[in-house]
């Protein structure tokens, strides 16, 4: 079972004079944790694109990841579009989950790593 949806909204912020104005870009339902798995959610800036990544792992062992769901924000339609190939991008996740739910994305060729790949790193 993949769990029940969890609603997230994406807003843009703009400073107008001395005021900060927010505009809702999109609102979507994404999977949240269920009894047999846990999910971590990430917003990642990647080479002028915005990615939304759901990392799914076994509830008893968060380091046993069994699935990623990756979406790219299409700002022209204000929709999250499923991504099946990262192309020249590479994503790095912390090995031990829940580290500020932070992930890093880069252009692989610039960093000398394999493109269209997901790496795990350990913070020592």
Q: On the 0-100 scale, what is the average pLDDT?
A: 78
Report helical residue fraction: under 10%
Question: From the helix content, strand content and strand pairing, which structural class follows?
Answer: mainly beta
How many domains, in number, for the residues? 1
Helix and strand string, N-terminal first?
EEEEEEEEHE
Poorly predicted residue ranges: none
InterPro entries: KIB1-4_b-propeller (IPR005174)
Domain KIB1-4 beta-propeller: 30-121
Pfam families: Beta-prop_KIB1-4
Protein name: KIB1-4 beta-propeller domain-containing protein
Describe the model.
The chain is mostly beta strands and 124 residues long. It has one domain (5-121). The protein is 3% helix and 63% strand. It contains one helix and nine strands; from the N terminus they run ββββββββαβ. Strands 3-4-5-6 form a four-stranded antiparallel beta sheet, with no helix packed on it. It has a three-stranded mixed beta sheet with strand order 8-7-9. A two-stranded antiparallel ribbon has the order 1-2. Strand 4 and strand 5 form a beta hairpin. Residues 30-121 form the KIB1-4 beta-propeller domain. It holds the Pfam family Beta-prop_KIB1-4. This is KIB1-4 beta-propeller domain-containing protein.
